Amino acid sequence: MEGLKVWRLSSSIARPSNLRQLFGLGTSSGLVRCLDNGAAAANATNTRLPSRNRRASTSTSTSTNTSDREAVRAIRLKKVEQLRSKGTEPYGYKWDRSHSAKELQEIYKDLNNGEELDSESHHVSIAGRIVARRAFGKLAFLTLRDDSGTIQLYCEKERLLNDQFEQLKTLVDIGDILGASGSIKRTEKGELSVKVVSFSILTKSLLPLPDKFHGLTDIDKRYRQRYVDMIANPEVADIFRKRAKIMREIRKTVESRGFVEVETPVLQGAAGGAEARPFVTYHNSLGRDLYLRIATELHLKRMLVGGFEKVYEIGRIFRNEGISTRHNPEFTTIEMYEAYSDYQSMMDMAEEIVTQCALEVNGKLTIDYQGTEIQLQRPWRRETMHNLVKEVTGVDFTELEDDLKVAKDVVLKAVGLGLDSKDKSSIEACPSLGHLLNEVFEIFVEPKLLQPTFVLDYPIEISPLAKPHRRHAGLTERFELFICGRELANAFSELTDPLDQRARLEEQVRQHNKKRAEAVSVTDGTGEQKNIDEDSMYEVTLDDDFLTALEYGMPPASGMMVALWSIRLVRVPSVNGGKATEIEIFCGPCLQGVLCLGRGTWNRQVGDALDGFRQHPRCHCFSRFKDFTVTGRMPLLEL
Fold this sequence. Notes:
24 strands; elongated; protein biosynthesis; Lysine--tRNA ligase; ATP binding
């Protein structure tokens, strides 16, 4: 069978600089990859395309794996037919369970090896997925896994009803979901088992699970098919259980202090509260663009204007920016506001939340992070950004002149050795001393903040929503909490002066528009734009209604945002030797876009398939493709 083929835009055709521009999607490898399940489609492809554009495949592993998978599926589909022909529905409706696997393990933990409890009082009923099986003549052993753990099914031919033992041997596969009933037995080798009297196939699995020796180790597949990941790597499910515990503990902690949970709009007329690229959608009835929120801040502050004194929200945030193992376009934040308090109050709240969650999840106030023991005992270190930068780099920003160019020269002289070109460019591009201080902090200081540290008093240029510092001009009453070298929380004494707030937000819009204009380089002779920084191309809107709300009067207040995905209280397990990452806590993280055309689509000619692409709502530009170079085939189209 033929292997991988890749259609790429012919070099002879004028084309957009990348597929991201073409499809309006995330970053792309620049290839449009398509897959077919059989050689017939490959032959049709070669018939349709000119011979000068055909190239022999050099890869067979993808084809072989797909072939094996399809062969297994075909066999299991026949088993579905066999079950139905015998009057057995392979997709059941209900199963009454008496116990979970964990409950049985706990109840019968003192049962001796070789002991069997066959009385009616010890008759149990369980259900779960079969993850392992062994058969020896008239005896079979199956490992059943449910949400709580695993238990063995002990199956004897003489004990099972009717022809169920033959069904077990011929029609039950690893991955099937079974319900089973029987008595309790501990084998001579010490394995607690359900001695099965009868069983029922509740769900017939059609696709094979990853084998038990290698599991699911491919990172892309693990994240793209999280359901398979959880089956193959049970420890992954523990991450989501710990996440749920953290959510419960956060609610318990803040509500014990009198905070009220509220819900604010996800669809908003203006994307405010942060400097981030929003997702834009269109409301047909209103005839206007709306934005998925990039922060909950501005609407929570409206609640303070309306009379609430302590509010919080656990909500989903959407930012149309880069994707990595440390960033997902959608994530959950916990944001809270308290009237008549300042940012010192929020430091106490942050310590309380983190320590309580750590105790709930880990039972202790120490965690191991990549070989370093992190101490969460209170109080935590509190230090200004200026002092931390001076401590690490030797540069004292309080002594630098107001001349930005001179300041940059001093910084580059102090830290220039070993500085990569990207970081050097970032330093040179800073538009103010405040931005320069923050850039140096992020490059040199932030990765070193492993132990809990409150970084205080950020520059006013990068803190448009924070109150000016009451003692230090040019700074704000703002802190960020860092643990394990990552930002955990961001908090302010909130700006309540409506005139100052308007001036700062308008300046933020001006600075963004300037950056946006600079991102578009001078066009060349063909009119094609080059070197466009697309992350700067979005439009910033001013939330005038929020500014109007402030003019009615908001009480002095402090506020804090905690990003749930960055909480490192949960020691995310390393799965199959892989590196633990924040993205592990997402049930379905956003990855490179995949458009699956469905089974068998590619058993038609390529031309028919391309017509299907053109009809896809996110592939409106596909008709611009006029010529292709065939270099292989795959089962999906990756955008």
